[in-house]
């Protein structure tokens, strides 16, 4: 059995704020010691996530008077006999650009509907949905869009679904053949990534067709039967793609991993799911967890031993605020305010908050609206 480490530094890199927490073992129990936060430094003029994390760690150092960084600004690992440094460092992030995913399948009201739920359970967006009717019967403009997206490498993944276990194989194989021809004709510089999460009996034929022209990943069926759903395997495949395709684009993350000796960096939504699921199992409760971020919102529900259900939306309290309010409508916000505030004032504050998420309210009305 792996020996438990004594102290951990846990970090979360967000679009706007980077937060760090220090945990340590006291009397054989883990205790929260201190936390620090700083402005995330993903964008110009910094373009290095390590700078913001370092500032947050310095915040903890000053609070606890416990050295955690060496003179070069690198984390001290492991903790020494004098209590300097930590034994482990874990990082989560929601700052990666969402995956751009196209869904291809048989029926929109069945497997494709489940596939959309899979995409919305991680940091990903559905760019287009193709069912068998739009694929076979016309849909020229949509297929032309897909051809252009493939040739310009605009897509991060295609999720191919369809068929319940024991169902017909031929329809999904025919779609796979058409997709392979489209990829072969219009592929760009990068090999397209395709996740197959349909009828398992079609796997050999789908692999034979698509494995030659794409980076094919085969996972369990999202709809094994009309009475059963299975999101976990497809969601894990998307999470893995997120780490492979998007994590390296975070400025400075590669150097941070090499210098600070990190464990794998995990998507924040995934780790929230683990935490809520653990609490549900540990205490036998039905739990709903909510993470309100600057660029997105994550909801996690867990019931006992069941895998957690995760829903993410790009409607945060910062950059996603403008789109969120346009869909929701100003009147549905204003009705919760204890005082009458003009719609123009709510909109003005929303636009300012979207541009400057860390902006603090300067007036009483602004505070009421934010709350």
Word description of this protein:
With 371 residues, the protein is an alpha/beta fold. The chain folds into four domains: 104 residues, ATPase, nucleotide binding domain (Nucleotidyltransferase, domain 5), CATH 3.30.420; 147 residues, Response regulator (Rossmann fold, 3-Layer(aba) Sandwich), CATH 3.40.50.2300; 41 residues, no CATH class; 50 residues, no CATH class. It is built from 13 helices and 13 strands. The strands form three sheets. Strands 3-2-1-4-10 form a five-stranded mixed β-sheet. Strands 6-5-7-8-9 form a five-stranded parallel β-sheet, sandwiched between helices. Strands 11-12-13 form a three-stranded antiparallel β-sheet, with helices on one face. The longest helix is centred in the middle third of the chain and has 17 residues. It is globular.
Which helices and strands, and how do they pair?
Blueprint: E1 7-13, E2 17-26, E3 29-39, H1 49-64, E4 88-93, E5 99-104, H2 111-119, E6 124-130, H3 132-136, H4 140-151, E7 157-160, H5 170-186, E8 193-196, H6 203-210, E9 215-218, H7 232-246, H8 253-260, E10 266-267, H9 268-283, E11 286-292, E12 297-303, E13 309-313, H10 321-328, H11 330-334, H12 343-355, H13 364-370
Parallel strand pairs: 1-4, 4-10, 5-6, 5-7, 7-8, 8-9
Antiparallel strand pairs: 1-2, 2-3, 11-12, 12-13
């Amino acid at each position: 059995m792996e020996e438990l480490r004594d102290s951990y530094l846990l970090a979360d890199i967000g679009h706007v704020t980077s937060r760090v927490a220090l945990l340590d073992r006291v009397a054989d129990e883990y205790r929260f010691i201190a936390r620090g936060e700083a402005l995330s430094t993903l964008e110009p003029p910094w373009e290095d996530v390590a700078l913001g994390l370092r500032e947050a760690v310095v915040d903890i150092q000053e609070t606890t008077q416990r050295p955690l960084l060496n003179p070069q600004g690198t984390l001290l690992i492991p903790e020494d006999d004098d209590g300097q440094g930590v034994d482990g460092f874990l990082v989560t992030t929601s700052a990666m650009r969402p995956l751009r995913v196209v869904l291809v399948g048989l029926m929109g009201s069945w497997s494709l509907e489940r596939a959309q739920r899979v995409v919305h359970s991680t940091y990903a967006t559905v760019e287009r949905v193709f069912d068998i009717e739009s694929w076979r019967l016309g849909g020229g403009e949509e297929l032309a869009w897909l051809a252009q997206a493939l040739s310009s490498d605009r897509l991060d993944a295609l999720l191919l679904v369809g068929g319940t276990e024991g169902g017909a194989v031929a329809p999904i194989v025919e779609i796979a053949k058409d997709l392979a021809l489209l990829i072969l004709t219009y592929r760009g510089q990068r090999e397209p990534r395709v996740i197959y999460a349909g009828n398992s009996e079609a796997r050999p034929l789908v692999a034979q067709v698509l494995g030659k022209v794409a980076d094919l990943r085969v996972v369990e069926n999202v709809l094994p039967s009309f009475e059963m759903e299975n999101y976990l395997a497809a969601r894990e495949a998307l999470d893995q793609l997120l780490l492979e395709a998007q994590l390296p684009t975070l400025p400075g993350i590669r150097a941070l991993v090499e210098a600070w000796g990190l464990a794998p960096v995990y998507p924040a939504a995934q780790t929230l799911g683990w935490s809520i699921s653990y609490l549900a199992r540990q205490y036998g409760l039905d739990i709903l967890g909510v993470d309100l971020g600057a660029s997105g919102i994550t909801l996690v529900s867990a019931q006992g031993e069941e895998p957690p259900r995760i829903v993410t939306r790009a409607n945060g309290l910062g950059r996603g605020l403008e789109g969120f309010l346009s869909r929701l409508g100003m009147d549905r916000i204003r009705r919760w305010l204890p005082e009458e505030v003009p719609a123009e004032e709510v909109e003005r504050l929303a636009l300012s908050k979207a541009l400057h998420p860390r902006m603090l309210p300067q007036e009483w009305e602004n505070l009421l609206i934010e709350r």
